[in-house]
Amino acid sequence: MRIVLVGPPGAGKGTQAAFLAKKLSIPHISTGDLFRANISQGTELGKRAKSYMDAGNLVPDEVTIGMAKDRMEQEDAANGFLLDGFPRNVGQAEALDGILKEWGVRLDAVLDLEVPEDEVVKRIAGRRICRNDSSHVFHVTYSKPKQEGVCDVCGGELYQRDDDKEETVRKRLEVYHTETEPIIDFYRAQDLVKTIPALGKVNEVTERALAALEG
Fold first, then answer.
1. How far apart are the C-alpha atoms of 187 and 107, rounded to whole Å?
2. In this structure, how many other beta carbons lie within 10 angstroms of the beta carbon of residue 138?
3. Radius of gyration of the chain (CA)
4. Which of the residues 3, 16, 17, 190 has the least number of beta carbons within 10 Å of its own beta carbon?
5. Please, what's the b/e burial string for 10-46 (b: 16 or more CB within 10 A of its CB; e: otherwise)?
6. What is the pTM of this model?
7. How far from the centroid of its chain's Cα atoms is residue 164's Cα?
8. In a 3-state reduction of DSSP, which class is residue 162?
9. Are 67 and 92 in contact (CB under 8 A)?
10. Catalytic residues
């Protein structure tokens, strides 16, 4: 299966992508991983991306598209893939359509993880990270530490990242609504969109997504 996963920040895309890719035996291809891999391997596309990022500029679509195309051409993606974070806008979606058409294949589905905006803000703004180890993550509502502001694992100080502050989250949501959300209408016109309510336990959301794909 060839699937695109979309949804606002905080919808749980990364978590769902990992579970779904494993269940469907296809690679999970995330934009973040693509950038990290290309930059660490020193590929030509990685060097170009790094030059823009170091200058504080957005990486052009053509570079992102090139990285995604290279990854989708790898052997493990021959029978399908799950794209997470790509395409990010309609231009990238059109480019993806062109690539797949060239290969004589098409997308099977676009899974749209739907979460109310206030819940997104609550999920992200409530996160607290350990200063000693960023893999120790807590939440003021959903996963409280035993002692406020103190990591249960190592006793380190818990803090809120600047990216997780409410004002920043709402700005990220604005960017999502402006840039990425239009791809849902783009794919809806192709009858590919399956909307998945993303509230509830992780496994419940995964089951909804799998049921939608089977349907």
1. 10
2. 21
3. 18
4. 190
5. bbbbeebbebbbeebebbbbbbebbbeebbeeeeebb
6. 0.89
7. 16
8. helix
9. no
10. 13, 88, 127, 161, 172
Say if residue 137 carries a ligand binding annotation. Answer: yes
Structure tokens that stand for 103 in this block: 């290969």
Fold observed for domain 2-115+173-214: Rossmann fold (3.40.50)
Pairing outcome for strands 109-114 and 137-139: unpaired
Q: What is the pLDDT along the chain (215 residues), one digit of tens a residue?
A: 999 999 999 999 999 999 999 999 999 999 999 999 999 999 999 999 999 999 988 899 999 999 999 999 999 999 999 999 999 999 999 999 999 999 999 999 999 999 999 999 999 999 999 999 999 999 999 999 999 999 999 999 999 999 899 999 999 999 999 999 999 999 999 999 999 999 999 999 999 999 999 97
215 labeled binding residue: no
CB atoms within 10 A of CB 68: 23
Residue 12 labelled as part of a binding site:
yes
Domain extents in the chain = 2-115+173-214
Burial 87-119 (b: 16+ CB within 10 A, else e): bbbeebbebbbeeeeeeeeebebbbbbebeeee
